[in-house]
């Protein structure tokens, strides 16, 4: 059987109902990378397993009747919850475009519905192991990623950007049992790679590769702002370093100590590759010029601004450069 036969199947879908049914049948499940196959119900799709290993949520973003997968305007996908201890399907259900599932140790599971058509939008769903829908949050933005706590008590998802703001760039967290939305904020940390959940007190921890882990409290307040700022200024990613420096240089009455810290971060960013990146080179030299200005090193500032202009004539330092040159009788010396 080829991969497309396995993806789309050869039979009609088990149910047209969107609310999960609960057929229990002893079956064999085989795994291959990120995919699983259940021949007994002709199912082939992606899956996620609980940390305990007891539960598996699987989904197929495809219409098996019309043999279409991924982006489409109609044709329901499907999902299922499997219990490894009883070796049985706990429930099955239909959803427009199920994706990026997570499952907790208690059997609660989440799925992102990426919606039909081309318009931006998605729905974040959390179900109990009995199929009761605990959370259904519709947004007018694509969903970037999501997570569910190991104990099934908390859930979170992040939306991507949208042209008009709206639901774009939101970090939205929930208490699952009562379906309570804890907060919806635009994260100061940007889009996280992973999430963790803490208790006593409740906190959502966002993890950023190469930067670190940072906490939002149960109300969406960012409680690690200073830690995040320092981490960005010392990380090994110049696309993070330079925006952090730009924010630091906006500080009113910036101290020489902070200006020196900014300069060190800029030099680090350049050594990490920003100097050879056409998209970042001009910005790096512009910021370097600003740092040198604060430090009173005008000749070095002039040289930096000239490098910035040479890389990008529209970088926005022409007037500043002209003003500094007037202040310096012979800037070439």
Describe the structure concisely for a colleague.
The protein is α+β, with helices and mostly antiparallel strands and 333 residues long. It contains seven helices and 19 strands.
Describe the structure.
It is built from seven helices and 19 strands. It is of the alpha+beta class. The protein has two domains: 3-186, Beta Barrel (Lipocalin); 236-327, Serine Threonine Protein Phosphatase 5, Tetratricopeptide repeat (Alpha Horseshoe). The strands form five sheets. Strands 1-2-3-4-7-8 form a six-stranded antiparallel β-sheet. The chain has a four-stranded antiparallel β-sheet with strand order 9-10-11-12, with no helix packed on it. The protein has a four-stranded antiparallel β-sheet with strand order 13-14-15-16, with no helix packed on it. Strand 10 and strand 11 form a beta hairpin. The radius of gyration is 26 Å and the shape is elongated. Keywords: TPR repeat. TPR repeats lie at residues 282-315. InterPro entries: TPR-like_helical_dom_sf, TPR_rpt.
**What would CATH call the class of the largest domain?**
Mainly Beta
Structural class: alpha+beta
Number of strands: 19
Relative strand content? 25-35%
Radius of gyration: 26 Å
Reading the helices and strands in chain order gives HEEEEEEEEEEEEEEEEEEEHHHHHH
In helices, the fraction of residues equals 10-25%
Q: Which CATH-level-2 architecture of the largest domain?
A: Beta Barrel
What low-confidence regions span 5 or more consecutive residues with pLDDT below 50?
Answer: 1-24
CATH topology of the largest domain, by name, is: Lipocalin
Question: What is the number of helices?
Answer: 7
Number of discrete domains: 2
How confident overall, as mean pLDDT?
91
**Main sheet characteristics:** 6 strands, antiparallel
Distance between the termini: 76 Å
* Strand arrangement in the largest pleated sheet: 1-2-3-4-7-8
* CA-based shape: elongated
């Amino acid at each position: 059987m080829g991969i497309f036969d396995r993806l789309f199947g050869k039979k009609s879908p088990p149910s047209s109902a969107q609310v999960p049914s609960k057929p229990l049948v002893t079956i064999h499940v085989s795994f291959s990378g990120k995919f699983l196959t259940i021949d007994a119900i002709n199912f082939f799709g992606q899956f996620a397993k609980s940390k305990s290993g007891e539960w598996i949520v699987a989904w197929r973003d495809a219409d098996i009747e019309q043999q279409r997968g991924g982006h489409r305007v109609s044709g329901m996908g499907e999902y299922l919850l499997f219990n490894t201890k009883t070796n049985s399907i706990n429930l099955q259900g239909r959803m427009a475009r199920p994706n990026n599932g997570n499952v907790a140790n208690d059997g609660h599971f989440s799925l992102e519905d990426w919606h039909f058509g081309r318009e931006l939008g998605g729905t974040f769903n959390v179900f109990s192991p009995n199929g009761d829908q605990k959370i259904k949050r519709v947004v007018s933005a694509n969903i970037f990623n999501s997570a569910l706590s190991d104990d099934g008590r908390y859930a979170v998802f992040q939306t991507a950007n949208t042209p008009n703001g709206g639901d774009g760039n939101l970090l939205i967290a929930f208490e699952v049992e009562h379906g309570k939305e804890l907060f919806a904020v635009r994260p100061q940390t940007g889009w996280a790679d992973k999430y963790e959940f803490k208790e006593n007190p409740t906190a959502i921890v966002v993890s950023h590769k190469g930067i670190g882990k940072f906490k939002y409290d149960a109300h969406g307040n960012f409680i690690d702002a200073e830690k995040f700022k320092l981490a960005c200024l010392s990380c090994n990613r110049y696309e993070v370093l330079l925006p952090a420096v730009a924010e630091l240089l906006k500080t009113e009455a910036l101290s020489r100590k902070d200006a020196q810290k900014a300069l060190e971060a800029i030099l680090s960013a350049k050594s990490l590759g920003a100097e050879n990146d056409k998209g970042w080179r001009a910005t790096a030299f512009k910021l370097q010029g600003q740092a040198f200005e604060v430090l009173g090193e005008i000749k070095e500032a002039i040289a930096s601004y000239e490098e910035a202009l040479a890389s990008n004539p529209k970088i926005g330092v022409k007037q500043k450069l002209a003003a500094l040159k007037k202040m310096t009788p012979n800037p070439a010396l």
